[in-house]
Design goal:
Helix content is 41%, strand content 15%. Strand 6, helix 9 and strand 7 form a beta-alpha-beta unit. Helix 6 packs across helix 13 and helix 8 runs parallel beside helix 9. The N and C termini lie far apart (64 Å).
Length: 342
């Protein structure tokens, strides 16, 4: 039972976790340190006890108690096909690897098993790495929240749910991303602005949509229409067709990723709609999809390689026992090109 408010702040101990889980303190310690010499049932009980009491291990003490591997894992909880098709992942990994080369740590890549995600979790718990970077568009990253209680972990996107002091996120303000692109379209004189969102089961998809809405509302403009995409050119094309087939009247389009915008441009061209004369297009990600499009795409540059470097820098600090805040926001820049009448 927690003490009264007049007592010192209650800090859960390893002994309390062990008692709640019905195991010895040494067994609880082995689970926390990723030992393979415990059953899956014991691991589940100890992790449930950790979650219930809010126990946070002393990372500095753990680093002294176990052998350092001098390795950090970049974990990708995405389908393999999507990982290789999306330049976002390559850019983040490149930035992380470049930063790692200036430290004593090596970076290893782990693509989560589609059939058995627990294999990745078990590998991380068994002390094979000193820290982990979790990078995913989707909510799969939320399954790594508990891991952050026992291993230095940095998330590249905000996992669903409330964040505690053990969760550290390095990402852009995605609401500001949607707002920046939409505000630029308004400044170009556009008044009927539609959007193609990212997947709405992702925090980035939801937040970029919210940024679009906030700016339209502040400007006294109605929402011209919205359709959900999936961060692929095919998904962007399909969403653009749905907007047009629904009779949406628009003079501008905010697309939540450059891959989707490239697909949408093809559909606009098929329908005889000129960009930017008839419809101005603004998007997100300053990559090959925005620079090779015709016309080239105005985009919000997320400085993705810098994100990878910042994630690696943060996990190194955590491994060394430093205390970090919950969030490390990254800068944004608008790169104006022909798709909005540059």
């Amino acid at each position: 039972m927690k003490p009264s408010h007049s007592a010192k702040p209650w800090i859960p101990t390893l002994e309390e976790v062990a008692a709640l889980a019905g195991v010895s303190s040494s067994t609880a310690s082995r689970v926390i340190n990723g030992s393979p010499r415990v059953t899956e049932n014991t691991v589940a009980r100890v992790n449930a006890a950790i979650a219930k009491v809010g126990y946070v291990p002393n990372r500095a003490a753990r680093s002294l108690a176990r052998r350092s591997t001098q390795t950090v894992a970049m974990v990708i909880p995405e389908r393999t096909a999507e990982f290789f098709a999306d330049p976002y992942f390559a850019e983040v990994i490149q930035g992380a690897a470049m930063y790692a080369s200036s430290t004593e740590y090596s970076l290893t890549l782990l693509i989560e098993s589609e059939k058995d995600p627990q294999k990745t979790h078990q590998l991380l718990r068994r002390g094979n790495v000193d820290g982990a970077l979790i990078l995913s568009h989707h909510s799969a990253s939320s399954s790594y929240r508990e891991l952050a209680r026992t291993l230095p972990v940095v998330f590249g996107v905000r996992p669903p749910g409330e964040t505690g002091e053990e969760i550290h996120i390095v990402d852009v303000d995605n609401t500001a991303v949607g707002a920046l692109a939409t505000r630029h379209l308004i400044e170009r004189g556009r008044r009927r602005i539609a959007t193609i969102t990212g997947p709405l089961d992702t925090s980035a998809g939801q937040e970029r949509l919210q940024g679009w809405r906030d700016v339209l509302r502040a400007a006294g403009l109605d929402e011209a229409g919205s359709e959900e995409g999936d961060y692929t050119p095919t998904g962007g094309a399909a969403a653009a067709r749905r907007l047009l087939d629904a009779g949406v009247e628009m003079d501008a389009l905010f697309v939540a990723s450059a891959q989707m915008a490239a697909g949408a441009l093809g559909v606009l061209k098929e329908r005889g709609i000129r960009v930017p004369d008839d419809v101005a297009v603004a998007t997100v990600d300053n990559n090959v999809f925005s620079t090779s499009a015709s016309p080239q795409l105005t985009t919000v540059d997320l400085h993705t390689a810098d994100k990878g470097a910042a994630m690696m820098a943060a996990v190194v600090r955590l491994i060394r026992g430093e205390q970090l805040g919950a969030d490390s926001p990254l800068p944004l820049d608008l790169v104006i090109r022909e798709s909005t009448g540059a």
